[in-house]
Amino acid sequence: MVETALTGIRIVLVEPAGALNVGAIARVMKNSGLEHLVLVNPQCDPLSGEAQLMAVHAVDILENAVQVGTLPEALVNCTRAIATTARDRDTGITLEHPRTALPWLIEQNTALIFGPEYRGLSNEELKYAQRFVRIPTSDRYPSLNLAASVAICAYELFQCAMQTETASTSNSDVASLDILEGYYQQLEQILLDIGYLYPHTAASRMQKFRQVFNRTQLTTSEVAMLRGVLSQIQWALQQKIKEQS
Question: Cα(238)–Cα(232) distance, rounded to whole angstroms?
Answer without folding.
Answer: 10
